[in-house]
Amino acid sequence: MTGTAPGLVGSGPFMFNGGYGQPAGVWLFEDYWNLYVNPHYFVQYINNPAYRQWTPKFFELYAPRYLSLSAAVAAEGLGQVDTVVSGIGGIPPTFLPTIRTMPNTYIYSKPSTSYGFMQLNSFASNSPFNITAFRQALNYATDKAYLASVLDEGYTVLGQPVIPPSDPLWRNASAPQYSYSTTAAMALIASIPGMTQSGGNWYYYGKAVTADIQTTTSAQTPLGTEGALIIAKEWSSIGVPTTVTQESFTTVVANLITYGYNTISLGITGIEGDPTGDFFAFYNQTDGYGTGFWLGPWTSIDYQGTNYTGAQINSLMNNLTNELNVQTNLETRLGIAYEIQGIAAQESTMINLGYPIDILPFTNSTFVNITRSSLAYTGFMYWNFMSLHLRSTPIPPAPTTATQLSVTISTPKTVMFNGQYDNLTIGVRNQYGQAMPGMGVTV
């Protein structure tokens, strides 16, 4: 996993192999990697301007790895890097005071498709979490606005559906949102048959009702331990004593797949565009169960004026996702997607903690015409540094004269014995991977 990749070209905008007169790239695991522009990807040398695509503003893409965000931000302040990204996209808002002191550094805030969430185990073995009203109560008892304002300093957009606010076409904005209300939470729990209260805590058929939130030690706020501790206090305040258990990421994923948890705190990169594939993982039991993504099993709810059992909702969600997959009419597909989101929000097996806003620091005294678009991080980087209009002087491709040849010989059999015969296939290619017909080869 380290070193150079001299035999690989790839078809993307940057390359390792040092072809077309470019330097060879390097990848040193846990240290750094760098790539160089693949001029043939951008085809800026063709005559027809309709097909011309100019190369990016930068010639080399160098990406050092740092052990901490603090070290990476410090490196940007010293001029050693131009921008910093992390596993959550941008940087946490706690670094904003430091970033604002750096000369020639700009801060771009971009909406994210990712979101943090609490997944509730709704299997019957985890009662009373297998009761819809109880899960809805915990959703009401989770102050998402407080998490967004205190832990993420306002850099979060709230919402229950898995479709981000940046995708209004597919998002059901009318789905239940569960604004913070301990009154609503307490009323829902009190309405559950078999639920009684003693000493400020709830008991379900005489058994104390408790909760445990699993979180990974590698998580960053507000999706990690700090947020989980706040939620634990909120749930405890309504009579559901809640603890927080930190596990390794490997353990959390294993528990997620086997449903070996009571409540689990995680983050996900989210959905962009058509959500059909994601909906199969989230809402279709046949395809989603065992992946760790399925948000079932579903339990009894009142839907469109009729009470449905969990088994009926499970069948309905399977049918809706299957219909979404085969339907071609866009208006019909949007209606199905909205219906799925509405049912999922009512089931409340997942508590959405909000969509973060990526904070992207960029130190720049060289490039001009940077667009402050509303696109997410990848779109922002592409249109500002890798799009058609950003470079007026193309990089001329190196002449494709063959200077390095490789010869391959293949036979149908690995071992040939005396008296046996077969054919040899001999191939000759240059350093660009192109076949060289007519070359003389002596065997």
From TrEMBL:
- Has keyword Signal? yes
Q: Which residues form a coiled coil?
A: none
- InterPro entries listed in its UniProt record: SBP_5, SBP_5_dom
Record key words, sorted: Signal, Transport
All copies of the Solute-binding protein family domain together span 7-288
What GO molecular function terms would the record report?
Answer: peptide transmembrane transporter activity
The Gene Ontology biological process annotation of the record reads:
peptide transport
Q: Entry's PANTHER family?
A: OLIGOPEPTIDE-BINDING PROTEIN APPA (PTHR30290:SF9), PERIPLASMIC BINDING COMPONENT OF ABC TRANSPORTER (PTHR30290)
Would you identify the family this protein belongs to, as annotated? Belongs to the bacterial solute-binding protein 5 family.
Write down what this protein is called.
Answer: Extracellular solute-binding protein
